[in-house]
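Any chance you could type out some protein's one-letter sequence along with its backbone structure tokens so I can compare the two?
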Amino acid sequence: MDKFETFSPFPAPTNTRPLLGLTILLVEDSRFASEAMRLMCLRSGARLRRADCLYAARRHLKVYRPSGVIVDIGLPDGSGLELIEELSTTSPRVGILLGLSGDPDAADKATAAGADGCLVKPLHNLAGFQQKILAALPTERQLAGPRALTDEVIEPDRTAYCDDMSRAANLLNVPGDEGILDYVAQFLGGIARSAGDDQLADAARNLAHSRRNGTPSDLLAATARVGTLVQDRMQKRAAI
């Protein structure tokens, strides 16, 4: 098993790979969002590790000390804000601590919990991602000289999107637990917005609304609609 990773020694960043030498722990339940982050780290020189829930992240952090942690706010076993608050008060504090959410309003919540900032999904712009990480770095880790700016847009493999659909389908088949629909609506809504799937994003939003304010028949219809769209996207993957 690897020992704790430390800040020194580390490779010097370059103008094309400004995050060289960093190891980032991503706490994210979506395969699609994780793939986008993996590609951005790869292009930037950083190494990425992933945990898909709070439990896995805490186990990881008992063994490794990453340069930075990026935490999705909505996770299957609780709010990412809990982990952000924990890490912000742990000594020594992790070098970079960022929130991650498809909700722009979550940025204030992440900062209040102790994060250095918040990345907003969808994650597509490489330069914007690099700047958010660099802004949280101490001066001695900053790139000396100008950074090569790029307008490169990251497009994750659509197979990862289909994997997320499979997970959602399994959750929708859990009997007798309507509370899980809150998580499914949040999970699918964020993924769909990241992928530009407006139809599924609208259906997920309607499911969340029906859980809060709808009648039982409204909820049944909204759940069925989401289930149909998820199955449709899984069938498209099978046809490829």
